[in-house]
Design a protein that fits this description.
The protein is mostly helical. The chain is built from 5 helices and 2 strands.
Length: about 120
């Protein structure tokens, strides 16, 4: 991570299409990641954390699917930041984003999403 520059440097070996990506870190994500900042290594949750997240979703009545966080990101990013920015961050084509993520959430809900911070 390059949090001092608000970037995540994803090496080609870790990306789905085997290309290096520089991902912008929005302010709310920075607040979540800053306590875990380190020079290298995985920030992937361990299995227990994944289980806790699934249990919390179940209690909240939310259907937890393998790509729920990625889909949520795309929905709220398109609504708040537009197709071009989301395309660069999610590594999707703008065409695909228009087909699947256009008008899924309101601008007001998107604004609330980008304001979620740890307590």
């Amino acid at each position: 991570m390059k949090l001092e520059r608000k970037l995540i440097d994803l090496p080609a070996s870790k990306s789905k299409n085997h290309r290096r990506k520089l991902i912008e870190v929005p302010d709310n994500l920075l607040a979540w990641l800053k306590p875990h900042d380190r020079k290298s290594g995985s920030v992937k949750p361990n299995r227990k954390l994944q289980w806790v997240m699934e249990q919390a979703a179940d209690k909240a009545g939310i259907v937890w699917t393998p790509n729920v966080l990625r889909h949520s990101f795309c929905n709220y990013a398109v609504a708040a930041k537009g197709f071009t920015w989301t395309s660069l961050q999610a590594d999707h084509s703008e065409r695909m984003l228009r087909e699947h993520y256009r008008e899924v959430v309101s601008a007001e809900d998107a604004q609330r999403y980008w304001e979620i911070r740890p307590v």
